[in-house]
Amino acid sequence: SKAARLFVIDISLSGFRATDHQPHTEEQYDISVVLNKGDEPFQSRMRVVWTKELTVSGMFQMGCEFVDTSSQELAKLEK
Predict the structure, then answer these.
(1) Which pLDDT does position 24 carry in this prediction?
(2) The whole model's pTM is what?
């Protein structure tokens, strides 16, 4: 496995949009997202649904969906 640090632009109960310096494939990844400083991070699996190159910055934007997220973890997002 390989760690990556993404910049999350927006997040919902079904997924999120983020940017990174490299494109990601449509494989599934384990993720951990700090929603509020000091709280336990949200943890789930996710799958990249789409990727778009941002030509001005040389970065990539991607749309990701959560996969098999527990109700306990979804409650963190609802909070």
Answers:
(1) 75
(2) 0.80
